[in-house]
Specification:
The protein is mainly α and about 270 residues long. It folds into two domains: about 15-80, Arc Repressor Mutant, subunit A; about 85-220, Four Helix Bundle (Hemerythrin (Met), subunit A), CATH 1.20.120. The chain has ten helices and three strands, in the order αβααββααααααα. The chain has a three-stranded antiparallel beta sheet with strand order 1-3-2. Strand 2 (about 70) and strand 3 (about 75-80) form a beta hairpin. Helix 1 packs across helix 3 (about 50-60). The protein is elongated.
Length: about 270
């Protein structure tokens, strides 16, 4: 019988450091390691069935890439959630997804029909918050699936990974889902009408409209510096971690029932 801990790193062809980097990154991004939490290297090592040295090496290699920081006296700490970082992430994603759509061009008619089909699932009454996030992420991936720039695709993926920490600290409300579905329909409609520039502006606005609601949400003490899953359940205290989530990142948590799509505070030009 295998006596290794449930979360231990099982032997594989991959180097141990790479496997540990992936595992630690997943825990940080998913909120299993809560924002503001100090990381106990010895405890993590015991849980994963490895020595403390590779854990420390993996954390050192992640500093500057993952949202963690080190202190010579206190060790590693997960960075707290901040309104300023949230705003920056959404602004960058709005800018880069708009650029990606412009570079890619209008999706094929078949893809546009598939986008409508994916979006229709957001209107399902029985949908769960986790399902809503997954569907929204699938919609964005389908929309930009022919992005010709690998570098740009990598930047967007990296930003969405960082955004996941914020998504796991919020509850997806029904109004967010309704707004997301409406905005998706508007974008696809413009693409069907061969108005690529307008669709790209709406895609950027799709991200920008939720900045203020997100910042207000983060200003609440119950949210900042804590981790919660997509159902709004508070994270367990250190030592009783939840299972890491593999939900993809999406824009849905930042969307709210706000006025019609705007870009930089102005309605998109026809």
């Amino acid at each position: 019988m295998d006596a290794s801990p449930p979360d231990s790193i099982t032997p594989s062809r991959r180097p141990l450091r790479a496997a540990l980097r992936d595992e630690l990154t997943a825990r940080i991004i998913s909120g299993r390691f809560a924002p503001g939490e100090r990381l106990n290297e010895s405890s993590i090592a015991r849980e994963l069935g490895v020595s403390q040295t590779p854990i420390r090496e993996a954390l050192l290699s992640l500093e500057g890439e993952a949202p963690i920081e080190s202190d010579p006296r206190k060790g590693f700490r997960v960075l707290s959630l901040t309104p300023d970082e949230a705003e920056e992430l959404y602004m960058l994603l709005g800018h880069f997804e708009r650029l990606a759509l412009r570079l890619q061009g209008r999706p094929a008619p078949k893809v546009l029909e598939e986008l409508d089909g994916i979006n229709a699932r957001l209107a399902t009454a029985e949908i769960t918050p986790a399902e809503a996030l997954e569907i929204d992420a699938k919609w964005h991936a389908m929309l930009l699936g022919d992005n010709p720039s690998r570098q740009l695709a990598g930047i967007i993926a990296r930003l969405k990974q960082l955004l996941s920490r914020y998504q796991h600290a919020h509850t997806v409300k029904a109004s967010h889902v309704v707004a997301a579905a409406r905005q998706h329909r508007d974008i696809v409609r413009q693409l069907k009408n061969r108005k690529l520039k307008r669709a790209a502006r709406l895609l950027k606005a799709h991200w920008l409209e939720g900045i203020e609601p997100m910042k207000k949400s983060l200003s609440r003490p119950a949210v900042r510096g804590t981790a919660a899953d997509t159902s709004g359940r508070a994270a367990e205290p250190p030592g009783e971690p939840t299972s890491p989530s593999d939900e993809p990142s999406s824009s849905i948590v930042m969307e709210a029932a706000l006025p019609a799509s705007m870009e930089d505070g102005k309605p998109p030009a026809p």
